[in-house]
Amino acid sequence: MKFLALRTAYLGLAALVASGLVACDKNDYTTWVCNPSASLAKVTMVLSRSVMTLDPPQIQTTSPSNNKQSNLRFCGSLGHDSYFDLRCPDNTKSALVQFTPSSGALRLGTQTMQCTVL
Predict the structure, then answer these.
(1) 3-class SS at 2?
(2) d(Cα 107, Cα 50) in Å, to the nearest integer?
(3) Alpha helices of the chain — where are they, by DSSP H?
(4) Triad 50, 92, 105: Cα angle to 5°
(5) From its phi and psi, is residue 20 left (phi > 0), alpha (psi between -120 and 50) or beta?
(6) Phi, psi (deg, nearest 5) at residue 15
(7) pLDDT of amino acid 13
(8) Which residues contact 57 (CB under 8 A, 6 or more apart)?
C-alpha cells in the first residue's frame, strides 16, 4: 500500500513539473490595430513577450534587413504605462514609445494613436 501511494505521489509531482515547464515556453502575443489619424493608414501592432512589432514601421531602424517592420524592446513599466525603444534609455520615460494597454493609447514621439485589440 505504501509503495502504491508513494508511486502515485511521484507521478503526480512529475506531471505537475512537466506542465509547469510547458507553460514556461508558451509564447503569448496580442495583436492591436492602431489609427494614427483619419488621413493616415492603420498600423498593426503585435506584442509578443517583450517585443513590440509595428507594421508598417513607424520608427526608422538602422538595420536594412528589417525594413518591413520595426521591432522595439520592452524597457519597463511605470504605473499603467509600458515603454518600448530600439535601445532602452537610462530614463525609462524618455523611451520612443509609450503604451497604455488599459486605454489603448500609443504614443510614438509626438504622435498619438488609439489602438484596439483584435
Answers:
(1) helix
(2) 18
(3) 2-24
(4) 70
(5) alpha
(6) -65, -40
(7) 54
(8) 66, 67, 68, 69, 70
**What's the rounded Cα separation, in Å, for the pair 21 and 11?**
15
Q: What is the pLDDT of residue 36?
A: 79
End-to-end alpha carbon distance in the chain: 54
Q: Please name the amino acid found at residue 25.
A: D
Q: Give the three cell numbers for residue 25.
A: 515556453
Amino acid letter at 51?
Answer: V
How far is it, in rounded angstroms, from Cα 57 to Cα 36? 13
DSSP 84-99: EESS--SSGGGSSEEE
pLDDT single digits (tens) 45-75:
999 989 999 888 876 544 444 445 578 999 9
Q: Say if residue 116's pLDDT is above 70.
A: yes
Burial track 38-50 (b if 16+ CB lie within 10 A, e otherwise): eeeeebebbbeee
Task: Give the mean model confidence (pLDDT) for residues 77-81.
Answer: 94
Neighbours of 51 (CB within 10 A): 13
